[in-house]
Amino acid sequence: MHSSSITSRRAWRTVAGAFLIVTGSGQVAALSLFYLPVTADYGFDMTSLSVYVSLMGLFSILTNPVSGKLLLKWQNHIRLFAVAAGFFSMITYSWLANCRHLWQFYIGGVMLSVLVPFVSGVYGPVVITHWFVKKRSLALSISYIGVSAGSVLYAQIVRLLIDRMGWHAGYYTCGVMMMIFCLTAALLISEPPVRYGLKPYGWEKSGENATAKVGLTLQEARKTSSFWLFFAATFIASLYVMGLQQSIVPMLQIDYKMTAALASTLMSLYSVTCAAAKILMGILCEKRGIRTVIVIIAVLMFSGLILLVISHSLTAAVIGMILVGLGNIFTTVIQASYTADVFGNREYSAIIGYIGLAMSIGVAVIPVIIGRLYDLSGSYRPAYFLLLTFVLVSTLLSLLSYRARPRLEQPEQEVLSGKAAEQ
């Protein structure tokens, strides 16, 4: 079989595997489904219980960069990470299903932090970046549809089990689903193409040197203003992205007086819209550039949040869910594509793992902020006004980062080896 055919088959099969493992991120959105039943059973207040999600984000500050370095060092055995994540997810959710005290939930939050790099912003982008030169944004977008697919699956299946069998069964189900996704992904994902004597997909249209590692090291990237501006933008974006995902269902139940079933249905609508947005925005990134897409998603997100906080009708809720779904791709497609486009692929896994710190900090902070605002006001509307501010600040920082982006150059040693190969 011609090498280009083998490359194409392995590359797109890897996208399918990344899609499956990223589907596990639906578990994060599903955590909000447990708030009301757990607090009802044990009498915890919302703020105290939400701390376990904050601990997940806080300890992800450690697990994200460590996972990035491990994936860089052990890239030729990258499938083993998916297998390990699958089994550990079953252990983690079994623990949560048997929690009775707050401190036990807090330990569960720390255990969840180990899974975060594999189902959010590190593992999927790394395996795809190994295999793609052209159509990388599209490939990333397809894999990130898994976020939306997972949110729909977890929201519907877990809610149904919580209603019929209790929240303990819901946690067990999260673990089983995550293990299935990870183990199946391990069968589909391929190690980097160099291990098979192949070149990345699309290298023919970019020239022979397209396979070279071009860009900045993590140490070099951290010396640029562009890196820290984008780090800050990612942190602020994670506040509104995770704040929205963690509060949609309880917000609709409390502020819109919806049933749990109707709120979960709108959550699924939001997730389906997110899936469509990832493909659409991925194509726009290829054709119009990432800066244009950053502006578009900001307008959509801001409009949707405004509609949600000023209205009380079902129609407004539906339109608002669609708009925020279309705009809620910063911490998925934008983060992964921007990192590759601006800082290159030389140490991509290390850089995106470090940028993942920003998202981890946001995940740690926002549940407590939203929970506290709710406890003080009895409504989620004050929190949503805060999310509006985060959208504006994150967009401004992203545009400033792009303006200050560094000029990428191929390392001198690789340039010389490339010229020698041509001679």
Write the topology of this structure.
Layout: H1 3-23, H2 26-30, H3 35-42, H4 46-73, H5 78-97, H6 102-119, H7 123-131, H8 136-165, H9 167-188, H10 218-221, H11 225-255, H12 260-288, H13 290-310, H14 314-327, H15 330-343, H16 348-377, H17 381-403, H18 412-422
Helix pairs in contact: 1-7, 1-8, 1-9, 4-6, 4-16, 5-6, 5-9, 7-8, 8-9, 8-12, 8-15, 11-12, 11-15, 11-16, 11-17, 12-13, 12-14, 13-14, 13-15, 13-17, 15-16
Distance between the termini: 28 Å
Order of SSEs: HHHHHHHHHHHHHHHHHH
* The CATH homologous superfamily: MFS general substrate transporter like domains
If you average the pLDDT, what whole number results? 82
CATH hierarchy: architecture:
Up-down Bundle
* Percent range of helical residues: over 70%
Indicate the proportion of strand residues.
Answer: under 5%
Overall number of domains: 1
- Total beta strand runs: 0
Question: Describe it for me?
Answer:
With 423 residues, the protein is mainly alpha-helical. It contains 18 helices and no strands. The protein is 80% helix and 0% strand. The protein is globular and about 60 Å long.
Structure at a glance:
This protein is an all-alpha fold and 423 residues long. It is built from 18 helices and no strands.
Kindly list the characteristics that best describe this protein.
single chain, 423 residues, mainly alpha, Growth Hormone, Chain: A, disordered C terminus
